[in-house]
Amino acid sequence: MKASRRNRLLQQAVANAKKPRRELVIEQLNADGSKTVIERREWPFDDDLTIVIVGGSDDA
User: Fold this and answer.
1) How far is 18 from 12, CA to CA, in rounded Å?
2) Backbone phi, then psi, for 44, in 5-degree steps?
3) What is the pLDDT of residue 56?
4) 46 to each of 8, 27, 41, 49, how far by Cα in Å?
5) Which end of the chain is more exposed for a tag (fewer CB within 10 A), N or C?
């Protein structure tokens, strides 16, 4: 492998390591106002995303 290619790959790896990790978080909002995390995974986009699931009433 050429030194210039190796250096470029190394610079890219360092730049990627410095990027903040973004996450997709799916939460359930409980009746008492607390939240339960259902799923959390790496999110490959620039902004975080949180999905909150609000349960319905059992009185229906």
Assistant:
1) 10
2) -80, 15
3) 61
4) 23, 20, 14, 10
5) C
CA–CA distance, 9 with 5 (Å, rounded to integer): 6
Structure tokens, 49: 């995303």
- Amino acid in position 10: L
Look at 46 and 59; give whichever has higher pLDDT. 46
Q: 3-state DSSP helix/strand/coil percent for the chain, to nearest 5?
A: 25, 35, 40
Q: Which residue has the higher pLDDT, 26 or 52?
A: 26
Residue 48 tokens read as: 């975080």
Between CA 42 and CA 9 the distance in angstroms is: 23
